[in-house]
Input
Amino acid sequence: MQPRLVLGLVCVATFLVYLDTSITPVALPAIRADVGGGASAGQWLLDAYTLAFACLLLTAGSLGDRVGRKPVLLLGIAGFTAASVVAALAPDMAVLIAGRAAQGVFAAAAVPLSLAAITELHPDPAARARAIGVWGGAAGVALALGPLLGGVLVEFAGWRSMFWLNVPLGVLALVGLALRMPGAPAPGGRRADWLGQVLFVLGASAVTFALIEGEAVAWVGLLALLAFGWWENRVAAPMLPPALLRIPAVAVACVVNFLGLFGLYGVLLLVTTHLQHVVGLSPLATGLRFLTLFGFLAVAAVGASAVVARLGTRRTMVVGLCCVAAGLAGLGLLDLGVGYWGYAWALVLLGIGVPLSSGVVAIQAMMGAVPAGSTGTASGAMNTFRQFGAVVGVAVAGILSPEGSAMAVTFLVAAACAAAAAVLTRVVLSPA
Output
């Protein structure tokens, strides 16, 4: 009974983290109308969360390996809940963005450690596979419900209710896991690469700031990222081992995950802006429009393993990337004001394509090529690129389609990137 209870509580924490990934976009116009903010405020509300999440994923996982997974997981849940209170009470846009960034910091601890906790509790491979499937289902349901739930809450309770919702669920997960999750001894993983972490955060943050705000700080980010690469090639226990990225299957998995989230988050930002500012839809009606996208994303995520068993990993990824490219091209070539069913098929293709080309499928594609002791690090690297795809997608959408104008440019560029990733996958990956 205890493993099932712990699994349920871990899934509650996972649900919260992924819910806050997809619930916020439909609320952007309401938030800006209430607390103000310039043209780039919407981009920062999305990117503050995903940037912090992406930057700290690898270090949080290694920290849990060294000091114990339970304390780091509990810290992640507690911090995420507290940051949600900050966001809910934010008097202005600056405090709200800071709260979102803090949510991302603690989400980076909650996600990898929640998966590690499930693995520890289920030593039997079959039981572990079922538990991971439940964990992935919780994430998929959260992504699917986010836009609709966000629309309902904004419409009837105001945008702050989205963040208050996290508090009782976070407290439930925190108290339940503190009481019921066994405190296994720290497995003694590798030492955290703190200098590498600082350089990585500095570089990624400066480049993101330059993309969103147009300030001349990109050179700071580029220098920090160059220093990060130099350091990672020399330190004994690097945060992101360069040798892993030189494995073709790992490189392809990272690129594909980056490009998959790149297009998806561009759609979330631009279509939300268009539907509410141009078409005049309410937050609830906007959330209903996204149900097609995230509903099919959740269904495809659950069915991805069956598709891989039938088509093989490489073919599944190529099919998924082609669906992503076709969906994005469709959104770029269609007039989103002609009626929902005129472009809903493009959202369906995008929703199907993202899980089939990335996520668990991409992990399967690279696991056979990764040394036995490096699978966790390889998975963390892939997820880091996945989150950065979201960060860059939002930033680039603001450059190519400022204030939601010229959306077709962003969608067609993202479609071309997905098509290029399909060709790369077809050429580089072995036909497994």
About this structure: The radius of gyration is 20 Å. The chain is about 80% helix and 0% strand.
